[in-house]
Amino acid sequence: MLHGIVLCGGLSRRMGSPKALLPWGDVNLLGHAVRRLAGAQLRPLCAGPQEWTAGLACEVLADDPPAVGPLGGISAGLSRGDCFVLGVDMPLLSSEEITRLVQAGAEAGLALLPQVAGRLQPLAAFWPRTLLPDLRRYLDEGGRSVLGFLGRQATVCVDEAGLLRMGVDPSHFQGMNDPDAYRTLLKEAHGG
Prior knowledge:
The protein is an alpha/beta fold. It contains seven helices and twelve strands.
């Protein structure tokens, strides 16, 4: 079975709390991400604190190695198999869109990276398990940059036109880094 890794991050100074714990409908952003991954027929894995996952149908991953940022969670997930990596702060990407991205990445056998407004989206992307040996070497060498690592790999980048052809809305890769962006996305998703 393919896996989905929710990258939770920690305390966001701008948000005043961890993004993963912000309310989203009848759950928080973490619960919403877990639901979407399960809806895409992926086994949800959570790269975040155990106490955040109470009542959620997901397994908690210990970063491997610890204290290296998102790559620690990604490395731990890849040790289980191919993964779709999902940042907790991209709540508009649907299960159906995740399924389409996973299928395209699995067919290519390479990391599949959406590219929106000229920016790669590695935290809403398909990562094949075959990246794990190179990722471990990169981390052993002191590398910590997600894009720095992926820049060394063969990847498939899908621009906005390609995403639309796949049935994936490029605007759904919009994240949130401040309270205004959070409120805007809440309003867009829930009409409030």
